[in-house]
């Protein structure tokens, strides 16, 4: 497939300085904003509750109503169609909808790795990805990671013909691994690992990103017209979430307490609490790659934007879809006010270090 060059002009547009727009004054009243999560309230998206509870959105004059989601694809569709003003969803879902003509723009990055991967038991003889050859692997065909298996296998030196690869229902996939009916499963680590860890099941994951298949996790999305016509609100949404991102990176235990008060069912049992803790830990890990340290929170790498668009067109689109312009699909216009010092980045990285042991 031909690649559209990411020109210097496009890169400059993507990296444009943040709009210098004032926040709503309290005297003007609070503006009501609808906001959707990609899934049920959980560790990777709890920063929305921190933004609301800590008053970060209120400081911007925004009264944000948070709705639960039913999947990133549905969330991105709803945002693009204007059923929600803003929301969080996986970058790939936003690009899929942009390719189908929905006017979705991603205005800030929350995680630099969607964490697609192959999961094995920690005591498994599988020590490197190619060790899955001659063994059993289970995947869910409807899962967003599934189209990337072939590319991962090729990049990781796996001969697919030597893998007993079956597709199974999402409801049984994880159980097959714990019962040792299969030697590995594929999926999104952010969904699978919190459950395993909370259940006391020790696992290791080989991430697709480790062989160069780059896709961001959650990003903040809105409609292109809204971002252009109402930069003040868009700036406020991003500012509030990035303040919450910083707070969560540096105060994870307090963030979990805030989440437990906002979503009581997340604190009903030790298992639920541990799932939220691990999910948040993985989100924090995904938010702290070294390349982000020199930039404000929410920054999108232009090279990654181009790579993600190319991968979307290769693996996730159908006939009739149109390749999005990376500089139109992602914007750095609204990032900038929230930054971290080198010492704060170091602390955030150290606090997330325990979760790196989950990966091969």
Give structural attributes.
360 residues, five-stranded mixed sheet, D-Maltodextrin-Binding Protein, domain 2, alpha/beta, 40% helix, 15% strand
Q: What would CATH call the architecture of the largest domain? A: 3-Layer(aba) Sandwich
What class would the helix/strand composition place it in?
alpha/beta
What is the fourth-level CATH superfamily of the largest domain? Periplasmic binding protein-like II
Q: Order of SSEs, N→C?
A: HEHHEHEHEEEHEHEHEEHHHHHHH
Please report the number of helical segments.
15
Gyration radius, in Å:
20 Å
DSSP strand count: 10
Average pLDDT metric: 92
Approximate helicity band:
40-55%
Uncertain spans: 1-27
Question: Roughly how many Å apart are the termini?
Answer: 32 Å
Biggest β-sheet description: 5 strands, mixed
Broad shape:
globular
CATH class designation of the largest domain: Alpha Beta
Q: In order across it, which strands form the biggest sheet?
A: 2-1-3-10-4
How many individual domains?
2
CATH topology label of the largest domain = D-Maltodextrin-Binding Protein, domain 2
Which range does the strand content fall in? 5-15%
Subunit organisation of the chains: single chain
